[in-house]
Write a structure and sequence with these properties.
The chain is of the alpha+beta class and 476 residues long. Helix content is 36%, strand content 16%.
């Protein structure tokens, strides 16, 4: 029989832990039992430190019993994405050559989460070097969708999303360049926030000026995601672009349906005709657009200017990959999987002029988005162009008769918004007739992360999909 603690919302669970109604040891053991039962089927958690977690839980309970001040995430268990460095625990990046790598220090967001009282459990699975939105690699294999074990959990934060949906942990960290928080959240019926760049400092990579990749929070609800965001966000001295987010510590009052009334919403089901979208996805998001309209929002077909976004994103992504791994690939052509190797080689063909012009395009897109959000409060769009696909595929090769040439093509719905520098999240929106989750992408003005989370929480009261758990897998 499943322990109800494993599906208790993080906000409520934190309150229970602070009050002493449950102990950190009780919470940890419930989640460890769930992992032991379900993870062999899902393969979301790929490294586990039960002994270390138990010691940390005992210490957390000692602090509460001693009356010491408790932090916001006191006693909440978490496994970190396997691209985030965790001191003393292996971080493989999903690649054979680093499968035994053990970092000496934590990445900043990992340290902030631990300093806030979370209990480190282990690591969650990723694609090779987080490239692609389907989680499989040569070290640990494929992560499967807890709603249907034959399907993909998405990626690159697929292990994190599947762990949340399976009841392995109440919060999760992730990262997002082209949809790596939003896509798996859509596939696994959870919330994934890609923050405004700078909200979560970029101090862990080699280049603080790289504009595309960000770390961000995930949760089963928007409120849980906001709780983790409040810990991850905030200025850092070694990131010149980092900032103190306004009201990041909460949702700004109790979310309610009335918050949706009067909102000016731009509905972009195909991003202005730029992307093909599966009919089953459109059925869900069109129904939710109608529901938002019925709740009093002003919903119009509209989309920010995305002209040039494709080229800018692909140029900057490929340039970063070549800078990181071009020499390694040249030394060993078999080192990386075939589509990652292709992307690295694409970067090798670029010139400095190409990169500079991509940054100019980003500048134009950011300025255009700023003007767009003087007329609209919110954009809604698909978080993924497809429903969860067969886990044995590398990536989809066709959408509604449109042939897809590369592993990136099916991910345009999230990544075309990336160069605009906006906060974007996926929130549970519905299910296909076969019971597969579909997420709604919500995009707000630059810096409006806290308000976006608040609106997502209000939307949850309209859709009610966040409460629907996997049947038959996570309840074993």
């Amino acid at each position: 029989m499943m322990n109800e603690l494993v599906y208790t919302d993080a906000v409520k669970l934190a309150s229970l832990l602070h009050s002493g109604e449950v102990s950190a040891v009780e919470v940890l053991e419930a989640h460890l039992e769930q992992i032991d039962t379900v993870n062999p089927l899902v393969n979301a958690v790929v490294t586990l430190d039960e002994e270390g977690a138990r010691a940390a839980a005992v210490e957390a309970d000692r602090k509460r019993q001693a009356g010491e001040p408790l932090c916001p995430l006191h006693g909440l268990p978490i496994s970190f994405k396997d691209t985030a460095s965790t001191a003393g625990m292996r971080t493989t990046f999903g690649h054979p050559r680093t499968q035994d790598f053990v970092p000496a220090v934590n990445d900043l967001h990992v340290q902030r989460i631990l300093d806030a009282g979370a209990i480190r459990l282990g690591k969650t699975n990723v694609p090779e070097h987080a490239a692609g939105s389907h989680t499989f690699n040569r070290v640990f294999g494929v992560t499967r969708n807890p709603y249907d074990l034959s399907k993909s959990a998405g990626g690159s934060s697929g292990g994190a999303a599947a762990a949340l949906a399976s009841g392995f942990q109440p919060i999760a960290d992730g990262s997002d360049m082209g949809g790596s928080l939003r896509n798996p959240a859509s596939f696994c019926n959870v919330v994934g926030l890609r923050p405004t760049p700078g909200m979560v400092p970029n101090t862990d990579g080699a280049n603080v000026f790289f504009p595309l990749a960000v770390n961000g929070p995930m949760g089963r609800t928007a409120a849980d995601t906001a709780l983790l965001f409040s810990v991850m966000s905030g200025q850092a001295a070694d990131d010149p672009f980092s900032s103190f987010p306004a009201e990041a510590s909460g949702l700004g009052g109790e979310p309610k349906l009335e918050d949706l009334a009067g909102l000016r919403i731009a509905f972009a089901p195909t991003l202005g005709g730029r992307v093909p979208v599966e009919r089953e996805v459109l059925d869900v998001i069109e129904a939710q657009a109608a529901a938002l309209s019925a709740a009093g929002a002003v919903v119009e077909l509209a989309c920010p200017d995305l002209d040039g976004s494709e080229e800018a994103f692909r140029t900057l992504r490929a340039a970063a990959m070549d800078a990181a791994w071009g020499d390694d690939l040249a030394a060993d052509p078999e080192l990386f999987n075939h589509f990652l190797a292709w992307n690295i080689r694409e970067g090798a063909r670029l010139t400095g002029r190409d990169v500079y012009r991509a940054e100019e395009t980003m500048t134009r897109l950011i300025r255009g988005a700023a003007e767009f959000f003087t007329r609209y409060d919110l954009v809604i769009a698909p978080a993924s162009q497809v429903v969860p696909f067969d886990a044995d595929l590398e990536y989809p090769t066709e959408i509604e008769g449109h042939r897809l040439e590369t592993y990136l093509d099916w991910m345009r719905a999230p990544y075309l918004f990336t160069p605009l520098g906006l906060p974007a999240l996926s929130v549970p929106a519905g299910f296909t007739p076969a019971g597969l989750p579909v997420g709604l992408q919500m995009i707000g003005a630059r810096g409006s992360d806290a308000r976006l989370l608040h609106l997502a929480s209000s939307f949850e009261k309209l859709s009610l999909c966040s409460t629907i758990r996997p049947q038959g897998v996570a309840v074993l």
